[in-house]
């Protein structure tokens, strides 16, 4: 019997495996997808287009129901490394207001106590060390530095966006992925775990998709199959196969932005500035510039929290679906309204002429309009599920998972990933995912 099996080799699975490796534990990582190299997609000109799910053969939707939230738009990158090889490296801590709703013990572990650095500070230090000692908020381009100064002059608490990236020259960069440090022999590819079953003799059996081979048995399991995948595996373990659909909550981020095509030049490396957190829209404001044809594209976007009282519902039964009830849709509209107010104020302070429409406008539609009217800002929306920030469902100290990240119903089974987040706030999830991976392993017996 294996000592520890980690299911999934994405951001959470490889961060957990890194900790297990450091502690000298016996473990293997089971990954549904193949090994396709460990380079971040932005590191190579030939693979940068994979950021677009439509062009990525590894893209595997969570659900395939067109026209529904989280329909074919959002999903895994089913390969070793998962989405850790696609993320943009934006590393924000969850803001205090949201963290206040976390279990006190976990909050203390993240923030530290009595001068002891917490897991956030330790994770940031590790990311800084990985990037060669550069601060996460170090300006990476001259434009970035100039934008931060300009926005600070307009009253925004602006800093270069904290990112765990290394610049590689010629506009290329890579974001941190824990997969790069893992020994290959620890990762078994093509192993999709379809179910986890308790063994009468102790430990667990992992049922593999290909079915025919013998099940793998392990004493400890860490579920790292992404938020939706973890919910499905936990549901199967706790409720068995023949069951009524069960409900889990899920939250994501909602974004609304403004595009302007400008004259001028920009280097090949994009520039990104974090212009602070806006309380009314519960959003972070990020302003970016990148080369666009013979000019520059400015994208000022607000990314905010899907309010917990307006969470989506994951229904797990024979087939998984994700539903947004009408009150949730109304609450999301309210967030979008506030985000538009934030962008209106941004346009006012920066002296931009902006076209605001209340109805939903996709990024591509807004870009076409912005290209047709250079100098005018055009607003766009990102639908729920589009941002790959799905979280919650199995929150720490919730119905299924205890405060240490272990399944209440199944001793020896731990969970890692954004699914553990009790209150997401506006921050991108991965800094918290990396910090919580350490937390969960620290609490394993
Ligand atoms: C283009 C892009 C940009 C992003 N930018 C940022 C950013 O700047 N900042 C930020 O914080 N976040 C960002 N994210 C989000 C971040 O990447 C995700 O939140 C994070 O990767 C989720 O980690 P995870 O381990 O839960 O899932 P994943 O990284 O998706 O890993 C899940 C892994 O499990 C495997 N798997 C699933 N089911 C099974 C099974 N049953 N058996 C075996 N294996 C299985 C999958 O194949 C996959 O490899 C971005 C995402 C994308 C796509």
Automatic annotation (TrEMBL):
Cofactor: FAD
Keywords: FAD, Flavoprotein, Oxidoreductase
Pfam family, one: FAD_binding_2
Family: Belongs to the GMC oxidoreductase family.
InterPro entries tied to this protein: FAD-dep_OxRdtase_2_FAD-bd, FAD/NAD-bd_sf, P2Ox-like
Descriptive protein name: Putative flavin-containing dehydrogenase
Domain FAD-dependent oxidoreductase 2 FAD-binding stretches: 3-54
GO MF annotations in UniProt: oxidoreductase activity
